[in-house]
Amino acid sequence: MGDGLLSDLARLADQQSRTHRYAVITDSNVGPLYGDEVLVQLGGHDRSSLFQFPAGEQHKTRATWQSITDQMLAAGFGRDTTVIALGGGVVGDLAGFVAATYLRGVPHIQVPTSLLAMIDSSVGGKTGVDTVHGKNLVGAFHQPVVVVADVATIATLPASHVSAGMAEAIKHGTIADAAYLRSLVGLSDRVLERDPNAIAEVVKRSVQIKADVVSEDEREQGRRAVLNFGHTIGHALEAVSGYQLLHGEAVALGMLAEAELGIRLGITDAGVLTELEEALSAMRLPTELSTSAEPATLLKAMAQDKKNRQGSVRFALPERLGRMARDPGGDWTCSASESVVIGVLSHVFKHKSHNDLP
Ligand SMILES: NC(=O)c1ccc[n+]([C@@H]2O[C@H](COP(=O)([O-])OP(=O)(O)OC[C@H]3O[C@@H](n4cnc5c(N)ncnc54)[C@H](O)[C@@H]3O)[C@@H](O)[C@H]2O)c1
Ligand SMILES: [Zn+2]
Asked: Is the Cβ atom of 224 under 6 angstroms away from ligand 1?
């Protein structure tokens, strides 16, 4: 991770993978900004090609996976290919999944260009695409050979995405490091101004926390579940909004709703909610909980999420800031009855009718 690292990409890539060709996968926003620079770095058109798809979560699909895979096959990319995922989390997940399945798997390098991707999604090896049944339901575990995060690319990221990325940093503080969470409030102005040093500080600490959790549990059988804090309700909000809500915005609201759930279940210290709200507002993330979706629709979206077991809804919940709760069986998720979940959703979200929407 560093400032201006893209110019060093060729050396970093060659060090990590003995490859003949690079397939650089990117989206329609990032490609025009950084595609040429990366292709030149990677030996020009003789050694590398750019595969671009339209930006946006709605394109993180099997259709895009198929189109890019077919284009690579048509261009004759063989087993000596390394895939470069150049972009935000959507590109990272999609390109990682192409790499995981291309000729039964080729290496890939994550080059995250959004704050969310630097802080979170480029680390951990989860790749995949969305389906009509929910987010990330088809995918594979496929670790990148290296992650090259150039904080200078944050300069061109839209402001709403700077804030959205910080939702995951706030999550990392809440689940593992209260002092980090509190430091984010003080860092917020510099982060929102995209000061590269402040961004680098946050990326470094967040990646450490995520890597610590993941290295204990690569295949999500145990502690890795704590990274889902805010995501069970967050994913449901994101899906029912038709992906109008950014992932980080949905996670911000999901964390508030899940903290409230934890408080009602007697698991979460009430102070967590206050500090979460403070950190989210400092990063200009939504704290006003409003949705046009009915609680039952949200619950149904959650039931389709893969984190459910045996009909009950399970949540990763904080006990207090920096410490996650375990259920009596030692599990890192806690069970909540559907009626309690409905109660929380009805209480915390202002349910706008469609007529109230702008
Ligand atoms: N695999 C994981 O462990 C994991 C973890 C968290 C999130 N995710 C996934 O990540 C995705 C969200 O990632 P995201 O927020 O980065 O979304 P994104 O990839 O859609 O990027 C956000 C927007 O910013 C643009 N962009 C990216 N970098 C830019 C730059 N430097 N300059 C200008 N524009 C830029 C993109 O084109 C897009 O429009 C979701 O699909 C989520 O499920 C995956
Ligand atoms: Zn997330």
From this structure: no
| Neighbour count for residue 174 (Cβ, 10 Å) | 26
Q: pTM to 2 decimals?
A: 0.90
Question: Which pLDDT score is estimated for 358?
Answer: 45
**How close is the Cα of 90 to the center of ligand 1, in Å?**
5
Which tokens go with 216? 């204990």
Q: Would you give the DSSP letter of residue 334?
A: E
Residue 4 Ramachandran class (φ > 0 left, ψ -120 to 50 alpha, else beta): left
Best CA proximity match to 38, nearest among 24, 57, 27: 24
Model pLDDT for residues 217-275, shown as the tens digit of each residue: 655 668 889 999 999 999 999 888 888 889 999 999 999 999 999 999 999 999 999 99
In the chain, which residues have pLDDT < 50?
355-358
Residue nearest to atom 21 of ligand 1 (CA): 88
Ligand 1 centroid to residue 94 C-alpha, Å? 11
Kindly state the DSSP code that residue 200 receives in the 8-state scheme.
Answer: H
Share of the chain above pLDDT 90, in %: 71
> What is the number of the ligand closest to the CA of 171?
2
Query: Which structural domains are found in the chain, ordered by start?
Result: 5-155 (3.40.50.1970), 158-356 (1.20.1090.10)
Burial class from Cβ neighbours inside 10 Å (0-12, 13-18, 19+) for residue 186 reads exposed
User: Is residue 126 annotated as a catalytic residue, yes or no?
Assistant: yes
Rounded Cα gap, residues 107 and 149, in angstroms: 17
- Which residue among 6, 26, 28, 29 has the greatest number of ligand 1 atoms within 8 angstroms of its CB, and so is best to mutate? 29
Tell me how far the alpha carbon of residue 250 lies from the centroid of ligand 2, in angstroms. 9
Which ligand has the shortest distance to the CA of 90? 1
pLDDT for the residue 292:
73
List the catalytic residue out of 59, 172, 235, 314: 235
Q: Is the CB of 161 under 6 A from ligand 1?
A: yes
